[in-house]
Design brief:
Blueprint (H helix, E strand, L loop, with lengths): L2 H19 L5 E6 L3 H14 L5 E7 L13 E4 H7 L7 E4 L13 E5 L20 E4 L2 H14 L5 E4 L6 H14 L5 E4 L14 H7 L6 E4 L16 H10 L3 E2 L5 H7 L2 E4 L4 H4 L7 E3 L3 H7 L2 H10 L1 E2 L6 H10 L5 H11 L6 H13 L2
Parallel strand pairs: 1-2, 1-4, 2-3, 4-5, 5-6, 6-7, 8-9, 8-11, 9-10, 11-12, 12-13
Amino acid sequence: MNYSTYQQGLVSACRQLANSTGLRRRRRVIFAAPTDFHLDHLMPVIEEVRSDRRLRPCLLAMPDLQTVPELEGVDIVDYDRFMKRGRWKFFDLIVTTEFWGVPWWFTSGARAFVNHGVGPKKDYLDRLSDGGFTHVFAAGQTTRDDVADILAQSNARGTEIVDIGLPSTDSLEAQGNARRKEIYTGRPTLLYAPSWHVDPALIPMDEEILTQLGDIPSADVVIRPHPNLLKPERCGGLVWQSVFDDLARTGCEISLGTPMIDDLCRADVILGDISSVLYEFLFFDRPGMLYVPEDVFNTTFSADSRERLTGAYHRMGSANELPGLLADLLTRPDPKAAGRQKLMAVTFFNPGHAAEAAAKAVSDIVFS
């Protein structure tokens, strides 16, 4: 028996002893998100879990988090200490939004993966085939199907798919209409939410669409770029920040720190690409447009996804179509309304109650 195998056996034995003898009355659940954006998807679940007195929730202070919230009843765990000496803390479950270097000693505990969006960029899910997760919290039926296919193709066994939903959208269902009344200016608003891709060639945003957005007299324009679009090293050297600065001088609002719910609530029409935001906007049942070059569209979306999305939103063939299509959507009934309802039904489990479903799943896992 090598040293690491011996360590794993020792940690596992100590954990089982603590469980069987009742030395721990509360089960430890640690939540891990690599960025603030990812943490937004976990926070509703943490809020639910901390109300369960049988559980002791912990938040891992990962290196790239800009803000580590302090919540009553939630322990903050130092990342370096966790990686080096956390094995003696007897965590029962780790809940994370990303694939990262979970230390070897946690392999004997349960690990749950939570979606940080429902967009078409599913390539990262391929890493589920490594078999490192005991549970996957599926956002909707399409996510469940994708995960099931990946696990079947890879022969990965022992991973349970749980129907949860997308907890970060609960506030859209519960607070969306009320928040819109508070912040709506009365003037039509177009929200453009360009996404990012790890391959710069697959980033859909281009100068043509940004040029059109700088000259939209029929509506206020809000642009909410993915944070990585502001980093030239993540965009093949392109400096989009200067373009956004120019657009701000034309009257466009560049939204960087505004809560996402506010940007979604005030939008009458959304313009999106490969971002999950298009799907989250479905909660408001308002029209939208899709701007994705043909090669990116075919590469990023499956055939089924392409059909469902174009059934719900209007796809533009070129950036020049934006002014006319926007004018139509602001003044005429949208023929895509039924398609949006269909897309909503297959995208989200438990709309408005996903965090509650996730908290129940956490409890079921640690007490099973």
